[in-house]
Amino acid sequence: MFRNALKVSASEAILQTLAPFSIRLLKIAHPLFLQFCLLSRGHHNLKTQQDYRTLTLSLLKYLLVALTMRFYSLYHMIQHTIAYSSQINLLVNCSIGFKNDWKSALGVFRWAESRSDYKLTPDAYDMIVDILGKMRQMDKIMGLLEKMRQDNLVTLNTVGKVMRRFAGAGKWEDAVRMFDELGSFGLEKNTESMNLLLDTLCKENKVEQAREIFLELKSHISPNAHTFNIFIHGWCKIKRVEEAHWTIQEMKGHGCRPCVISYSTIILFYCHQYNFVKVYELFDEMEAQGCPQMLSPSPLSCVI
What we know:
Blueprint: H1 2-18, H2 22-42, H3 49-83, H4 87-98, H5 102-114, H6 122-134, H7 138-150, H8 156-168, H9 172-180, H10 191-203, H11 207-217, H12 225-237, H13 241-253, H14 260-272, H15 276-289, H16 299-303
């Protein structure tokens, strides 16, 4: 079934490719037809019908050879195009056509992977990982990750996608395990990868778990402003705004200056609570800290 689908797609591609050349083929046939007419009129003294038939067959053979050579050239051009077509186009079409049908998407991917003239990139693997993760096919993902690990194709983006899918499926411990195993994929535990894990957990409302992990990691992985902004957003998301305020103070203690993102997250929370007294208090604090208040659009205007 899959091969038939590919054949149909290839046939459609060939027809679409040949269509622009139909005019060119007519340009070949037209002068040949004129030559036939002129030769026929020039040989009006041909005595028998057999003579006309011989002349006609000769011209038709010439026309057939010319058209065959042109089609042969086009055929090889098309074959070359199909054989070396972009893998990104192939897998983008795969994700569009099969984004809710992981079996078909995986079938296309396996076919592309088996081709000797394809060199799948980490982006291509990430695409199929995303499709499988969306359909909660975690076992398939882990098998694919092992293959990627052997070929040194795992990137931090790949790990991030897998962690988000685990956390979204309620398996946040597996997301943490992915972070712990970064070294086996040739990746480093650093501020960027730590922030990726913390952000994944906070977006799934696992802020307390993220906090515990951060306390374990901060002794050997330095946080940055983005680390604390992740927690500010997380605490506000689960409606624990006091912890968000405390995080701003912790942020300052680590030498990171709160930015407009830090404050606007809390301001937006208070706006949704219609607590505009707190909103203006934060505006005053921002002014005192020398933090710009111009937001586009501002949290206040979003609520209004």
